Amino acid sequence: MIADKALKILKINKLRLTKQRISLVSNIFKFGNRHINADSLHNEMTDNGVKVSLATVYNTLHDLTKVGLLRHVKVNSNQNYFDTNIDAHHHFYDESNNSLIDISKEKINIKDIPLPPKNKKISEVEVIISIKNK
């Protein structure tokens, strides 16, 4: 059933239909809303006996982001995540275990956003609050 949904997602969005992509998409969305990175997804796949290159994992995550099925969350220059929750929201970034925790957009009041440079527009505002153990 999950593989059927993955196949449909790939077909609707005109993404290449390969066994690896079907397996990746199935795995990405089978757990509901979650935050993943390429390395952890690659490890999940190999742990489940699916042979897939890290490049295919990256390409699939970026393709799904381009078609609006994932949100790319850049925490810092070393930490990139992909979020299956594509609704507008913010995040706590837990430095102790490198994980993201959703924050409802209503919980943060943003005001006085500066105007963007000429010929540019704001596409999204996302707040990432880093936290660590006391």
What would your notes on this structure say?
This protein has 134 residues and is of the alpha+beta class. It is 34% helix and 19% strand. The chain is built from four helices and six strands, in the order ααβααβββββ. The protein has a three-stranded antiparallel beta sheet with strand order 1-3-2. A hairpin with a 4-residue loop joins strand 4 and strand 5. Helix 1 packs across helix 2 and helix 3 crosses helix 4. The chain is globular, with a radius of gyration of 17 Å. It starts with a helix and ends with a strand. The relative contact order is 0.14.
Query: Which radius of gyration do the C-alpha atoms yield?
Result: 17 Å
SSE order, as H and E?
A: HHEHHEEEEE
* DSSP strand tally: 6
**What is the typical, i.e. mean, pLDDT?**
89
Oligomer: single chain
Terminal Cα separation, in Å?
44 Å
Q: Report strand %.
A: 15-25%
Helix residue percentage? 25-40%
Strand and helix map with partners:
Blueprint: H1 2-12, H2 19-29, E1 35-36, H3 38-47, H4 54-66, E2 71-74, E3 80-83, E4 89-94, E5 99-104, E6 128-131
Parallel strand pairs: 4-6
Antiparallel strand pairs: 1-3, 2-3, 4-5
Helix pairs in contact: 1-2, 3-4
Q: Which descriptors would you attach to this protein?
A:
134 residues; alpha+beta; 3-stranded antiparallel β-sheet; 3-stranded mixed β-sheet; 4 helices; 19% strand
Task: Kindly summarize this structure in a few lines.
The chain has 134 residues and is of the alpha+beta class. Helices cover 34% and strands 19% of the residues.
